[in-house]
Write a structure and sequence with these properties.
alpha/beta; 10 strands; binds ligand AN7; 354 residues; six-stranded mixed β-sheet; four-stranded parallel β-sheet
Length: 354
Amino acid sequence: MAHQWQGVIEEYREWLPVDEHTPVITLGEGGTPLVHSAWLSGLVSGDVWLKVEGDNPTGSFKDRGMTLAISAAAGEGAKAVVCASTGNTSASMTAYAARAGLTPIVLVPHGRIAAGKMAQTVMHGAQVIQVRGGFDECLQISRELAEQYPVELVNSVNPMRLQGQKTAAFEIIDALGRAPDVHVLPVGNAGNISAYWIGFKQYEKGGLAERTPQMWGFQAAGAAPLVLGKPIADPETIASAIRIGNPASWLLAETARDDSGGRIAAVSDEQILAAQRELSSREGVFVEPASATGVAGLLAAVESGDVEPGLTITVTVTGHGLKDIDTALSGIDSIVDSVIDVDVREAAAIAGLA
Ligand code: AN7
């Protein structure tokens, strides 16, 4: 093979807590495109780039952390791994566990999980346990399972996860040749914002960037504990991936926000769905609802005059739109616009070509 991206462990080995004995369980994750957005750049009078994490092997950014967490678990001789998940963590964990020959156990909340994510989880061979509770209760049980039984916890409270996920910040600086002025992303369990902050700071310290960006995180209004400053018992949002009321990386996320001079704010479900639609129809980038939350937040910030002109802004869109086609299609009256006989002139007339 002449040239192929090697996955984040090999590509960033010197920046990661691995050694020559660590088995490398990889699906070639990372190396995702940084796509320029003419639409958003125009709106902010600057340069906006989308870090398209749906292009990872299982369709979300979770793969970056999972290659590290599963490699470490396999290296330590684990036989089984467990996670709580709103869907993407389980899709990723089960894929990497399948490669490593580990038994995957998944705890999912009562209520809706996007069907695409459950299809992945089931196809990769997971034991799926639904809990009569939300994500936060699932995480509690997962922690207790890992404390009391022979099973490794791979939620983002496992430090390997953030170590892997920080590589997205490296890739952004490698691609731009500098750190952005602002980095924008959705916040749920708050692992990713914490991981990016670790990555941006490490590259600055290592002399690969002259500075760090402001970190702007956005939560869904019905699931915005970091904005309210207290946990929420019954989080609710159409963006099921970030329906989380008590983020595990709460303090790390606040540190990322405060040390970077950034912000964590909320956007409504309507703003999220509108951003998702615009990204798809204007930029050709189809993301799941939660993944559009950063874009929705940036649009809201532009609206309220909070974005000074001339900035370079990167926005992580975290997961692929095909994960949750039910939500995407529910906003559409009818998929088929017209039905015709086999007649080219009729097709042309309806399509406005004639
Ligand atoms: C598409 O899969 O928590 O703030 O269990 O799937 O690092 O939690 C997913 C989170 C954003 C939030 N976008 O990231 C899970 C899970 C998508 C996500 C987030 C998630 P964090």
